[in-house]
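lol ok so funny story. i was supposed to be doing the assay writeup but got distracted and ended up predicting the structure for this chain instead. priorities right. anyway since i did it might as well share w the group, maybe its usefull for someone
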Amino acid sequence: MASYISADKIEEIRSAADIVEIVSNYVTLKQRGKNYFGLCPFHPEKTPSFSVNPEKQIFHCFGCGVGGNVIAFIMKIENLQFPEAVKFLADKLGITIPEIASGGERSKERLTLFKVNKFAAEYFQHNLLNTNAGK
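and the output, tada:
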């Protein structure tokens, strides 16, 4: 059952995840200056071109060009869609994602909104075509 994750909750999870710590679970990183470098997990290489910037909380591979934030990294490395990657990180960080109306409840709400919208469209169409004010 799919569920909606609020933008605030996504930002909370993204902010709580230390990209260096998360990436270190998959790649051996060595600090060089402000950044960390390692072998890219997304293509074969012998010289480290995979960079993690802890200040900006992003990663980038200078070899294959892949990059992004911690959610993008989890999506790519674990082969997950965006909501699954957010939930994966939330579980790792111990953050609870509240269940918001989904499935049947959300469908009923959408159906009600469509009906109201259809009623409004018919009302305005009638007024435009059949009244002096609309002509």
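The first strand starts at residue 30 and ends at 32. Strands lie at 30-32, 35-38, 50-53, 58-61, 67-68.
back to the writeup now i swear
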